[in-house]
């Protein structure tokens, strides 16, 4: 077990280093540079351009910029955002936290609902409930996020449910409880949208892996020796059927820190998804590098955890 | 036999689809207090509070009444309104000015505002990282005499008051010195975010949450009693897109929406929400097609022939375009400076749409029609171009396609390509490989300095996207900037625009209106009678004037103090809020949010699911 974990850990580390290098290269491959872009100011002077290029190190050769970047990544000095003229950590982390606040509960809820529906659907294959769940899952999975979001806004606009933002502005909250309640209220629509849109994939995957398990000999054996349905399903089938789902869950949890661009846009949620999107069009390399590093780190970590969980659920993977 | 669990599961699944559609909980909406005015802002996002390094409209708009200036301009952009300077004098040779400061202005931390702060601010403005450097470049010296008098010496120009004195915000030296001890150090200035912010204006910044909002609170001790705000707080809330912002306005979460809404949003608001007033005013934005005329550029060489450019301009119906793309919320463009600009030339009319004339021009210039319907130049280059357009403006991509169709009728082929602005910038600068780019400018309505984009030396700095080179144009621009009377400045500005109109480095499309909306049932005295509308980076009146409806009786306007104590020459245009020519919404009943389309879709989905469930249940039963 220890050896397996060490092996997986090492490969995670290699993946991370590869990401660090790629992150730098990828954004430099984008055409255009932040200076000509940021400053479409009719009165821009040559000295201003030179000053800004020098300040952001853009006048250095690419390899010098790369080594500076490598050194700074590991010193925790992630630079100054070209756009906000503020330290990257100060720009990035609040947005990331906002995204996690919205995405983590949505993802967890979607996983719980999706997996449960998948179990019901798979167990009752061919029944009306199976068909309903399957078609509902497919429809939800195929729904464009922004369309569902706009629809929800249209339907609730007169009800008083907040349609945008993360909290009411211009309101003083008497205590922490009312603040949290206010944020929760603002979460209703975006969370509903996200949960509905992502639960479909969990239901579909869980259903097919349950179906796969149902044809196994051990199920037939357990059934014929008279094991109760509930016990058979929950103790024997579900743990085995969870294996593929664990991977999806790991990836979903990992991308929680990357935000959800469409949902954030429709509901003006101040998350990191739109920050990343905007930073790409602004060519704000420091913010992009920081964001991708954090996202890569979390995805790699959660995959590492998934591998470990996997080996616990299915000891065979350790030996392969 | 009906399986009860299957029925239950079917209902559950159906509910899941509609769970979100049906709002189960009725949540009480946190009503903002009447003395808080919330503006939604859906434009380019906020960058920094530092007024010298910001490049965003929202930053300038927010701090317009947080910092004071030496003087202010009125609603027609005459620099005649006193601010920190209660009187001033410009010497007749237009190369020196003296400003007398009020002695009762204080910073929000209680320290008095003095002439030293003014000198420091102008030194910072001259920093190479400052966006205001071009505004102060004319200054040769600035010095404080005592605590309340400042003397400027500058190279002769009639634009000193409007382009320099009314353009530089005065910042507190005692605070800034900790971060920018050397006013000319560009790194210090670039890295200073200016938050928490100390200002001397009628509002102070009391909160800022990145990506969410900025809160301004009225300064009850503001030194101009007549400019003390009528609302307690102004909040600028950021939105990711204008649709989301309009929804928030409809839901009553915010009181106003800026900057420019789309025409369809304006029409929807006018139709369904009688409490919301939509105001359309000449804006600061205009759209154009830049033609690559750079002698050293690598675009299609036929575009360097002015005949081709003329033909292209005649083969374009800008009136129809403004109607189709902006549904009338845009004015077809003649000259370069938009209709709301103080130096707009009304004599330059848009090129008339005349396909026959365009064809004739090309025939006479020797461009023969090829067998494939594309003309060929005398030396064999086909008139086949790429028309780049910025992809973040979908309606302009549509405009580009319409234009390409018109051009086809004169044997010109244009392939429309939508690219993001970063990519477009890399195509244009520094090598000028493009043929055309369809792009926009936001320009200050107070000054004619957008004309500098066509100076020969602007090509390498990345503001000229046409690569226009014309020595006599450069000389004329120099004359405009050094003219010693505003009338002369105007004359030169018109001449310059006329040169561009005839030479066509830009084919101008239209000036877009600024369409904004606010809740007129809750707030009044929103000052809209200015280019850019009520909420812009130039309208400093709105925040001060805006009044909750319940307080209307006590409302006064900023105009009372206007220039009464000024000894400067020049008359003052009234800054009194006048009834704007806004579109009054028809008083229809607000329609339900459940519009037929939504209901239709919902019903179809319900029927499909119910049908599937029924069939299956029957088969099993």
Residues in helix, % of chain B: 25-40%
DSSP helical segment count of chain B: 18
Distance between the termini of chain B: 4 Å
| Mean of pLDDT of chain B | 86
Run of helices and strands of chain A: HHHHHHHHHHHHH
Oligomer: heterodimer
Rg of chain A, rounded, reads 24 Å
Biggest interface reads: A-B, 91 and 100 residues
Number of helical elements of chain A: 13
Shape of chain A: globular
CA gyration radius of chain B, whole angstroms: 28 Å
Distance between the termini of chain A: 12 Å
Provide mean pLDDT of chain A, rounded.
Answer: 87
Instruction: Profile the largest sheet of chain A.
Output: none
Structural class of chain B: alpha+beta
Strand content of chain A: under 5%
Overall, the morphology of chain B is: globular
As a percent range, the share of strand residues of chain B is 15-25%
**Got a strand count of chain B?**
21
Q: What can be said about the biggest beta sheet of chain B? A: 11 strands, mixed
In a few lines, what is going on in this structure?
The complex is a heterodimer of chains A (320) and B (621). Chain A is 75% helix and 0% strand.
Description:
The complex is a heterodimer of chains A (320) and B (621). With 320 residues, chain A is an all-alpha fold. Chain A has 13 helices and no strands. Chain A has helices at 2-29, 34-38, 46-55, 62-75, 88-123, 128-142, 145-156, 176-214, 217-224, 229-254, 261-266, 272-282, 285-313. Chain A is globular. Chain B is α+β, with helices and mostly antiparallel strands and 621 residues long. Chain B contains 18 helices and 21 strands. In chain B, the strands form five sheets. In chain B, strands 1, 8, 9, 10, 11, 12, 13, 16, 17, 18 and 19 form an eleven-stranded mixed beta sheet that branches. Chain B has a four-stranded antiparallel beta sheet with strand order 4-5-7-6, covered by helices on one side. A two-stranded antiparallel ribbon of chain B has the order 2-3. In chain B, β6 (139-145) and β7 (149-154) form a beta hairpin. In chain B, α1 runs antiparallel to α18. Chain B is globular, with a radius of gyration of 28 Å. The N and C termini of chain B lie close together (4 Å). Classes of the chains: A mainly alpha (320), B alpha+beta (621). At the A-B interface, α2, α3, α5, α6 and α7 of A face α1, α4, α7, β10 and α8 of B.
């Amino acid at each position: 077990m220890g050896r397996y974990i060490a092996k997986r850990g090492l490969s995670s580390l290699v993946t991370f280093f590869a990401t660090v290098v790629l992150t730098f290269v990828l954004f430099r491959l984008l055409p255009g540079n932040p200076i000509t872009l940021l400053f479409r100011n009719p009165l821009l002077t040559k000295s201003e351009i030179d000053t800004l290029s020098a300040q952001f190190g853009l006048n250095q050769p690419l390899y010098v910029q790369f080594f500076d970047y490598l050194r700074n990544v590991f010193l925790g000095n992630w630079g100054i955002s070209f756009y906000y003229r503020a330290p990257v950590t100060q720009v990035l982390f609040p947005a990331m936290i906002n995204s996690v606040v919205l995405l983590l509960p949505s993802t967890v809820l979607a996983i719980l609902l999706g997996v449960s529906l998948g179990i019901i659907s798979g167990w009752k294959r061919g029944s009306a409930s199976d068909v309903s769940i399957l078609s509902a899952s497919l429809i939800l999975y195929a729904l464009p996020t922004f369309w569902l979001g706009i629809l929800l806004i249209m339907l609730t606009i007169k009800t008083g449910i907040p349609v945008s933002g993360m909290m009411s502005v211009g309101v003083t909250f008497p205590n922490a409880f009312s603040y949290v309640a206010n944020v929760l209220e603002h979460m209703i629509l975006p969370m509903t949208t996200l949960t509905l849109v992502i639960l479909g994939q969990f239901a579909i995957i869980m259903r097919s892996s349950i179906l796969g398990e149902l044809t196994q000999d051990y199920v037939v054996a357990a059934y014929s020796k008279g094991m109760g349905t509930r016990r058979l399903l929950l103790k024997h089938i579900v743990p085995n059927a969870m294996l593929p789902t664990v991977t999806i869950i790991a990836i979903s949890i990992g991308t929680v820190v990357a935000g959800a661009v469409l949902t954030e846009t429709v509901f003006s949620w101040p998350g990191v998804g739109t920050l990343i999107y905007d930073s790409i069009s602004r060519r704000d390399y420091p913010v992009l590098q920081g964001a991708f590093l954090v996202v890569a780190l979390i995805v790699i970590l959660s995959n590492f955890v998934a591998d470990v969980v996997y080996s616990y659920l299915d000891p065979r993977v350790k030996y392969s | 036999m009906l399986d009860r669990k299957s029925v239950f599961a079917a209902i559950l699944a159906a509910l899941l689809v509609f769970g979100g559609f049906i709002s189960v909980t009725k949540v009480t909406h946190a009503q903002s207090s009447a003395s808080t005015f919330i503006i939604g802002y859906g434009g380019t996002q906020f960058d920094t509070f530092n007024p010298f390094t910001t490049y965003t409209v929202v930053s300038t708009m927010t701090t317009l009444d947080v910092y004071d200036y030496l003087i202010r301009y009125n609603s027609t952009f005459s620099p005649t309104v006193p601010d920190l300077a209660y009187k001033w004098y410009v010497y007749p040779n237009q190369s020196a000015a003296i400003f007398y400061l009020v002695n009762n202005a204080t910073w929000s931390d209680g320290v008095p505002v003095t002439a030293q702060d003014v000198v420091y601010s102008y030194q910072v403005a001259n920093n190479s990282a400052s966006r205001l450097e071009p505004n102060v470049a004319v200054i040769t010296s600035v010095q404080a005499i005592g605590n309340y008098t400042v003397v400027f010496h500058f190279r002769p120009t009639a634009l000193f008051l409007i382009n320099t004195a009314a353009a530089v915000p005065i910042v507190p030296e005692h605070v800034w010195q900790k971060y920018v001890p050397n006013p000319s150090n560009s790194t210090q200035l670039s890295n200073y975010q200016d938050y928490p912010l100390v200002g001397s204006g009628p509002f102070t910044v009391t909160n800022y949450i990145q990506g969410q909002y900025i809160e301004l609170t009225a300064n009850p001790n503001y030194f101009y009693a007549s400019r003390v705000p009528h609302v307690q707080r102004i909040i600028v809330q950021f939105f990711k897109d204008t649709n989301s912002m309009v929804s928030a306005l409809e839901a009553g979460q915010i009181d106003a929406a800026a900057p420019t809404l789309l025409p369809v949003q304006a029409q929807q608001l006018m139709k369904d929400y009688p409490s919301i007033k939509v105001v359309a005013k000449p804006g600061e934005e205009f759209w154009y097609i830049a033609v690559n005329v750079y002698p050293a550029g690598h675009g299609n060489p036929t575009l360097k022939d002015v005949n081709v450019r003329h033909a292209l301009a005649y083969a374009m119906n800008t009136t129809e375009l403004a109607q189709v793309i902006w549904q009338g919320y845009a004015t077809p463009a003649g000259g370069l400076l938009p209709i709301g600009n103080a130096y707009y030339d009304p004599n330059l009319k848009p090129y008339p749409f005349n396909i026959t004339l365009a064809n004739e021009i090309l025939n006479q210039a020797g461009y023969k029609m090829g067998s494939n319907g594309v003309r060929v130049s005398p030396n064999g280059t086909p008139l086949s171009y790429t028309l780049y357009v910025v992809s973040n403006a979908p309606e302009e991509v549509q405009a580009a396609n319409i234009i390409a169709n018109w051009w086809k009728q004169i044997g010109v082929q244009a392939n429309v390509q939508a690219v993001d602005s970063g990519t477009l910038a890399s195509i244009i600068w520094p090598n000028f490989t493009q043929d055309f780019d369809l792009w926009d400018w936001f320009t200050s309505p107070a000054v004619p300095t957008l004309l500098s984009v066509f100076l020969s030396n602007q090509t390498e700095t990345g503001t000229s996207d046409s690569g226009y080179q014309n020595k006599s144009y450069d000389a004329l621009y120099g004359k405009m900037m050094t003219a010693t009377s505003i009338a002369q400045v105007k004359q030169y500005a018109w001449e310059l625009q006329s040169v561009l109109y005839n030479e066509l480095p830009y084919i101008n499309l239209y000036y877009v209106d600024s369409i904004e909306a606010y809740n007129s049932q809750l707030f009044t005295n929103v000052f809209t009678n200015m280019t850019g509308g009520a909420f812009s980076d130039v309208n400093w009146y709105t925040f001060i004037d805006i009044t909750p409806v319940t307080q209307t009786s006590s409302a006064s306007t900023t105009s009372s103090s206007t220039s009464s104590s000024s000894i400067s020459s020049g008359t003052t245009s009234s800054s009194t809020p006048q009834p704007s020519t806004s579109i009054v919404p028809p008083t229809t009943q607000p329609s339900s949010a459940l519009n037929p389309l939504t209901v239709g879709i919902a019903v179809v989905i319900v029927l499909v699911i119910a049908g599937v469930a029924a069939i299956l249940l029957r088969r099993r039963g």
